[in-house]
C-alpha cells in the first residue's frame, strides 16, 4: 500500500517549518529571507529568483530541500549587494510566474518572501537545526488506527530507522536505473536519456529540434540550453556539465542514499526483529519492532563508504563491504572526479532518530493530525511509513 493514500491530499495537509540555529543579525554580508511556498519545490523557487535577480542559482543559499506537495517555510540567503524587495509574492499558473499581492497557501500555487535580517555567512545544506511538521493523515480506518498506535509505542521507545526519504530519489526512474551508474560507466548519453525521459517522451532523441519542441514546456532554462548544445554538436561529456552543479550532485546523492539505506536495512534485518515496508521503485525498507541494545543503536553512525571513517561494528562492516561488491563499487572509485564533481565521498549519518514534541493535535473518524519536530536530515515521510504500516 502506498503512503500517498494517507498524506499530501492537499498541500495544506502537510505543513513544514524550518528551524535555524541562530537569529538574524542587524548587519552582515548576506540578506536572510523567510521563504514560504505551496506546491512548489525549493529548487523551482530558487531558480526563478535567480533568473529574476540575474544571478546564479548557486548564489542563493538554503539549508534544505523542502517537500513540493506541502506548505513549507524555510530560509534563504542572498548576497548583501543584491537589490531586492523586502516583501514579494508570486503565483505560478499555467507555466507562468505572476506577481501577486499575497498568496492563499491553502489553494494556490506560489511563494512569498520576507526579509528578516542579515547573516555573516550564506546558508548551505544542513545548516538548520531541523523542521517542525503538522501533518494530516487521511483514510484511517479502525484497523489502520490500531496499527498506528501500536507502532507509535515502538517509536517512542526505540526511535525510528533514519532512512533517506523519497525526496532523495527524484532522478531515479526505475528500480536500478541510477543516472549515476551510467555516468560511472562512461555512458553519458544513456544517463542524459534517462534524465530527460523523466521530463517526458524522448522518442525524438537525436532529432534535437523535435525533442526541444516535445519537451519545451517542461524544461528549465539550463535543460533547454543542454539540448541546444547537443544540437550545435557539443559532445555529451561537455553538454552534461551545462546542468547546474547541484543537479549533477543529486545524481551522486541519489545513489549514495540508496546504498546507505541498504546498509541500514540489512543491518536491522541481521540484528533485530523487523517488519518490511514497501518503498518507491519496489524497494523495501525494514523497521525494527524490538531493540535489545538501544543505547548502542541510538549512538550508531553509519558511513557512506568507510574510506575516511573506520567501521568498528563487525556486522556493519561486512554488510557495507558486501553491498559495495554487489554494485561493483571498488575503493578506487571513492572520491573520483566525474562530470565536474567529486563522487562517492565519505560521511556519517545517524542510524536512528527520535521525533520530539510528538502530539496528536486532532482526530476525526477517518483522520489523525500529528505535530512533531525532527532533526535536520531526517524525513517525516519515513516516520509516517513506520507508523502506518
From TrEMBL:
Record's catalysed reaction(s): uridine(13) in tRNA = pseudouridine(13) in tRNA
Catalytic center residues: 67
MF terms in GO: RNA binding; tRNA pseudouridine(13) synthase activity
InterPro entries: PsdUridine_synth_cat_dom_sf, PsdUridine_synth_TruD, PsdUridine_synth_TruD_CS, PsdUridine_synth_TruD_insert, TruD_catalytic
GO BP annotation list: tRNA pseudouridine synthesis
Role: Responsible for synthesis of pseudouridine from uracil-13 in transfer RNAs.
Protein name (database record): tRNA pseudouridine synthase D
Organism encoding this protein: Persephonella hydrogeniphila
Lineage: Bacteria, Pseudomonadati, Aquificota, Aquificia, Aquificales
